[in-house]
Design goal:
221 residues, mainly alpha, 11 helices
């Protein structure tokens, strides 16, 4: 492994981990609401949240590009604040977070649904506030399921290509992740490097999926 490969792997791991951390607060809040509350528009909100899972990634990337571009509603505001997102590492994290969110949300919702309601009700009767019940009872009991979702979301982020190349571009040393590097080297006809990078990606993905499965199985015990 040369220095370039090492930097590429570390960058991919870092932005993937950063993406799931960015997605986590929203996934926790929405996952709890979907698991524990009944409200008008619930099905619509859930459908919108899950859209990145079924839309072509390039479509998601195009929407992000238009929204966070300098002429977009969010991008224009950020530009006036001196914050540049598109075609930077921030765009990579943004794209990966959006693409990982649906899987993370699904795992977290399931984890909250498996928490016995009577334990939450018992905590409430002992004088705990709703926030204390969530943070001291619900989240700890759903912890393994949440952790499994984080690992699965990380694996999804690691493999993301379409949305990333749309919103962040393919800039070696700046926005290039493992999937983008595989594509670039394939285009250049460097099959040996493609096989090497594909093997690294497969190994990391295997470890992430194995860990997620172990956490999920323990959460169900």
């Amino acid at each position: 492994m040369n220095g370039e490969d090492f930097r590429l792997i570390v960058f991919t791991l870092a932005v993937s981990a950063g993406a799931v951390m960015v997605a986590l607060p929203g996934a926790l809040a929405l996952g709890w609401l979907l698991a524990r509350k009944k409200w008008h528009g619930k099905a619509l909100v859930e459908t919108l949240a899950m859209l990145p899972m079924v839309l072509p990634p390039v479509v998601t990337g195009f929407v992000l590009l238009k929204f966070f571009g300098r002429k977009g509603p969010a991008g224009g505001l950020l530009d006036r604040m001196g914050v540049e997102v598109i075609f930077t590492w921030k765009a990579v994290v943004l794209a990966l977070a959006v693409m990982a969110f649906p899987l993370l949300l699904r795992c977290i919702r399931t984890a909250f649904e498996e928490v016995p309601r009577h334990l939450e009700e018992a905590a409430a009767t002992l004088g705990k506030s709703p926030w204390q019940v969530i943070f001291r009872v619900s989240i700890p009991l759903a912890g393994r399921g949440i952790a499994a979702g984080l690992v699965l979301g990380f694996a999804r982020a690691m493999g993301e290509f379409g949305a990333t190349i749309m919103v962040a571009g393919l800039i070696p040393g700046v926005t290039e992740t493992l999937p983008l590097a595989i594509y670039r080297n394939f285009q250049a006809g460097d099959d040996a490097r493609v096989w090497w990078l594909a093997g690294v990606s497969a190994m990391i993905a295997f470890c992430a999926l194995w860990l997620s499965a172990k956490l999920s199985s323990r959460a169900g015990e």
